[in-house]
Design a protein that fits this description.
Blueprint lengths: L3 E11 L4 E9 L2 E9 L3 E6 L6 E8 L4 E5 L2 E3 L7 H13 L1 E2 L7 E7 L8 E7 L3 E2 L10 E6 L1 H9 L6 H13 L3
Parallel strand pairs: 4-10
Antiparallel strand pairs: 1-2, 2-3, 4-7, 5-6, 5-12, 8-11, 9-10
Helix pairs in contact: 2-3
Amino acid sequence: MGNIIREKRELAYEGAIVKVYKDHMLIDGRKAVWDYIQHNGAAAVVPVLENGKILLVRQYRNALNRYTLELPAGKVDSKDEPRRICAFRELEEETGYKVASPDELEFLIRIDTMVAFGDEEIDIFVARNLIKSEQHLDEDESIDVEEWALEDLVNLIYKGELKDSKTVAAIIAYKSKYNL
């Protein structure tokens, strides 16, 4: 392992969701500048209906300039907000379904989504015993909710058509954990 030292971190940009920094590094005596994106964290949910189908959301993603199929998810409101609370909120906001309490969410996995240049970490939960409610979308959201069979989602993953990393990881982990 090499000798790596961060000499200085400077804020280059602060947005609504992330802060972008320039990290001035010393790597085995050589100077380098690395980008670092700071994110407070997020949560996502695998919402499972009584019939076994999974609810996913289809929404436009500006960075990709296309619609994506994903788990309902969102960023924490503050670095101190428990991700279980975030997942509880985002489930209802995005899908119009909820569970009776945050304690009903079962922890599935935790993932790091962009290890080469950022620290976003997402906790993913499973929600069962869903209660029909109403969507409460943010002003900048337009989301369609879709029901999918697990095997159809797995097929989309292996065909390269479902590529959202949190969704791929969660669907495969869910299938594996419950031997489905």
